[in-house]
Amino acid sequence: MTPKIQAVIFDMDGVLTDSEPLINAAAVAMFREKGLVVQPDDFHPFVGAGEDRYIGGVAEKYNFPLDVPAAKHRTYEIYFTLLPSQLEAFPGVHRLFQDCREAGLRLAVASSADRAKVLANLEKIELPAKMWDAVVAGENVVHKKPAPDIFLFAAQALGVDSAACVVVEDAVNGIQAAKAAGMRCVAVAQTFPAERLQEADVVRSGVIDILLSDLIPN
């Protein structure tokens, strides 16, 4: 018998925040500075896998030699200039957070992004780290999504069995990671079309459409 859901683990980029277009624009601009014109769609296979893979995967596609740590640093510099005026929470995020709290669920963020980006995003959308029971970032695990490590780490940080966790994701890599961790997964079609997300247990158009019954099935 599957344990009753005790915790919700949220991905960040593309779930809580509309940050995917911003990091995409920042990465495209970084490559342009280095003399390589890349397309926004080039990054789609690497969404959710962390910025090292997000940038490095595109460099590999073009056989472009790249110092990935330095390139990521520059990408973040550009991203942080966009964040203050352009980053917002998706509609429904604060309501769902409050509904989960009132239901007695433990709450975590688990993102493959670097902690500096995670903390800045959460601060900007007025759900700072102190409001969560755990905040897990890319530095906490070696193997990024689609490996299950980040969600297993989050469950451990919450003190909850993995089978008692439900993940909210927007990307194929994240859904695969959640399922590999043995967790229920609710997907939102805020980054990818719904037909790409069918491995999830439930697919909704956006966070605003998620019900508590999606997270905690009868």
Question: Which structural class is indicated by helix and strand composition?
Answer: alpha/beta
Number of strands: 6
Shape: globular
> Compute the gyration radius: what is it?
17 Å
Instruction: List the secondary-structure elements in sequence, H or E.
Output: EHHHHEHEHEHEEH
CATH architecture of the largest domain: 3-Layer(aba) Sandwich
The number of distinct helices, counting runs of at least 4 residues, comes to: 8
Average residue-wise pLDDT: 95
Could you give me the name of the CATH homologous superfamily of the largest domain?
HAD superfamily/HAD-like
**What is the CA-CA span between the terminal residues?**
12 Å
Strand order of the largest sheet: 3-2-1-4-5-6
